[in-house]
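Please fill in the sequence for the structure shown.

STRUCTURE ENCODING:
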């Protein structure tokens, strides 16, 4: 099963920053795909 997350929010609240930091910190040893 493929794990997926949906991130929503208003413009300028830091969704991209949060996503970038989370991927670097928690998923650095795994393959990650980001679909926009």
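FILLED IN BY: designer on duty
SEQUENCE:
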């Amino acid at each position: 099963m493929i794990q997926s997350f949906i991130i929503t929010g208003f413009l300028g609240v830091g969704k991209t920053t949060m996503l970038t930091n989370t991927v670097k910190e928690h998923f650095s040893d795994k393959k990650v795909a980001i679909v926009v």
